[in-house]
Design brief:
alpha+beta, Multidrug-efflux Transporter Regulator, Chain: A, Domain 2, Multidrug-efflux Transporter 1 Regulator Bmrr, Chain A, 2 domains, nine-stranded antiparallel sheet, 36% helix, elongated
Length: 287
């Protein structure tokens, strides 16, 4: 504890007025080891601050407003390297932006779900012939599928000649959604699919699909899935295999999210028929 007097020191009340921080907040900063007063009276415990501590107090306040963890605040204050400080702040801002996107997605989903008269989903039944494509398949967890998808699609782009004959797509096993881990396949059209790296020729079997188009960002695509599911129940149809997605327009095509179009295809059969066996097609060893 400091006991010496600092010339031109400011009392805690005056320091609070100059920084627009309450006395209670300044005491919390002291107790947390974020901002030590320039002087603390040994007998009375009265805190006094130096004028050059004003910017430090304001930096702490801004960082805490952004919910920067205490440990990171201490590291930012302690390091003299502006690059390290920028990296620490940038990493936290990235986490905040991701959280904001999740919040916006939840709001969009709720707005659709709570709409007084939601637009009816448009579903068409489509016979899709067997098709051979270039694909990458793997067993992945639901929480890692987006990162895996980005890497697999980048590898497909690098292996296949441009321009391509049609949109990319994905095939996703039921277990991915029901158990949090399952088989996934991403693919691109190709007349002569290569065997290169993780890329393998894959034959997608012929199938009857109930198809609907999801418009816009993917963070509320679950609502479209639910709408298609309700349509299937009303139509006495049952899902008969892994779900197919076709990425007609997506983030790899344009930054305008309102232009994105994703077809959701549910393999179906009538309740009176026997369900066919349609596992996710294999594409060689798991990637």
């Amino acid at each position: 504890m400091q006991t010496g007097r600092v010339s031109n020191a400011l009392g805690i009340g005056e320091f609070a007025r100059l920084t627009h921080l309450s006395v209670r907040t300044l005491r919390r900063y002291h107790e947390a080891g974020l901002l030590e007063p320039a002087d603390v009276d040994e007998r009375s415990g009265y805190r006094r601050y130096a004028a050059d501590q004003i910017p430090t107090a304001q930096v702490i306040h801004r960082l805490r407003e952004l919910d920067v963890p205490l440990a990171d605040v201490r590291r930012i204050l302690a390091t003299p390297d502006p690059g390290v400080r920028a990296d620490l702040v940038g990493a936290h801002l990235g986490r905040l932006e991701a959280q904001l996107e999740r919040t916006r997605g939840a709001v969009r989903s709720l707005q659709r779900l709570l709409a007084p008269e939601p637009a009816p989903v448009r579903v068409e039944l489509r016979s899709v012939p067997a098709t051979t494509v270039a694909g990458i398949a793997a067993d992945v967890g639901l929480d890692e599928v987006l990162a895996w998808y980005a890497g697999a699609m980048a590898e497909l782009d690098a292996c296949l000649p441009a321009p391509l004959a049609g949109p990319s797509g994905g095939v996703y096993d039921d277990a991915l959604f029901t158990h949090g881990r399952g088989r996934a396949l991403v693919h691109r059209p190709c007349d002569d699919p290569p065997s290169l790296g993780r890329v393998r020729p894959v034959t997608l079997p012929a199938v009857e699909l109930a198809v609907a188009t999801h418009v816009g960002e993917h963070d509320d695509i679950d609502v479209t899935y639910g709408e298609v599911g309700a349509w299937l129940v009303a139509s006495s149809l049952v899902v008969a295999g892994p779900i197919r997605e076709t990425y007609l327009v997506g983030p790899r095509d344009t930054d305008d999210a309102s232009s994105w179009r994703t077809e959701i295809g549910w393999p179906v059969f009538a309740l009176t028929a026997e369900p066919p066996e349609t596992p996710v097609p294999d594409a060689g060893p798991a990637g």
